[in-house]
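Suppose you are handed a protein chain with no further information: no name, no annotation, nothing but its sequence. What can you learn? This example shows the usual starting point.
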Amino acid sequence: MLKRVFGLYGEEVTETYGTFVAINCTFYNNDGGICIHGPTFLYHCTFDMNQSTGVSGGLYSYNCLYSSPPTQMGGSVIAGVNLIEERDLVFGDNQFDPAVGYIIPLPFVVSATQLNNTIQTPTGITASEILAKLTTDQANKPRPYSTNGNIVTFGSIEVGKDSNTLEPVDVKFYIRASEHPLTDPTSRNYRIPIYVKASEDISNVIIEKLVVEIDRSIFYPRRVDNGTMLLNFIDTVIEMTFTNVQVPELKVDEEKVLLTIRGDVILGGKDSNDIFVKSVTFSGDFNTDIELLDGYITIDICQDSILMLFDYVPAV
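A reasonable first move is to predict its three-dimensional structure. Written in structure tokens, the prediction is:
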């Protein structure tokens, strides 16, 4: 029998026979903890006032965090690197929060090496499947949470670094709106891409908030393919606020599409207008320099276009 758990917390797990797999789990204040009479595979789990034991079949524990005393790990580990330290050092005064199911560790524990396809896995599960689950932590934050190469946090929760650990990487981002000369004013579902480029290799970065503006007499946005979009109307301007935008993986100075806005081109009171990139806020723990580059859209006006109505009413 194979038992898998993801993001589990606060439970005692006891199996008489079989294989047990736990990913991004927090085990807190239980008498039995994990006691498996079979192969036990643990990946980025946190143990506080608990214990993990592989009675038979072996204990495979990778990048797990164990507080002490008492000793939270029972038996010997066949494979994997883990952090076993006094509770005050790894958690300080932070306590288990039953509302979320985890304990936030201190930056001291940001010292693990990101796992790769050399990890041992149980029969029937590939390393790729395990690593896919580990791209985020128990709280669904990206792993690694910072941009310091392949350094991640021991345990189930990712945290950023402070001045007492590795310095955050300096990254310059370029956010650029696209340019659209001679655009057909009858275009519907028209695409306006926004591009991103970075001065360093980048992965697992989230934009918390991106603001773009355009005149609504020339374009009416309807949807976006990355994150969520909120529209705010200010006189003739449409302010588009995008949240929770996933930045694509980037190599140094490589430009990619960040998101694509789709909407309707309009023949209104203007035949040309800038696409303004107003502001951007990144999540994550790194020093950020940002250059915002505006684009533009120009309507291709012909004699037939002049006959079109100037007042555009979006379809409901």
